Amino acid sequence: MYGGPTCTSGTPARCTRQRARRVCASGRRAAVDQVVTELGGTVEAMYFAFGEDDIVLILDFPDPASMAASSLIVKASGALRSRATPLLTLDEIDEAARRKVAFRAPGT
Q: What's one Pfam family the UniProt record gives for this protein (predicted)?
């Protein structure tokens, strides 16, 4: 959750073909748990999926920098291709909607 004490993100990932054949589901979960917990985070959920993405994770980190660090570590290994989508709570969206900024679109 950006702007708050934690950073929660949904992270879809694709395994390389060679990696997918060698590592079982429990081995993948153990690897994810290791990286996430070492950075102070928790794995809220881990799902295997059909289609473009092989794995979808819901991760909770103490801050955005920890989330970025996990992404850099995993991508540098070459084991996964991933992207992170920061997730916001309903309260965070309500807070964003209450914020006012004086803005006028260019040309109007």
A: GYD
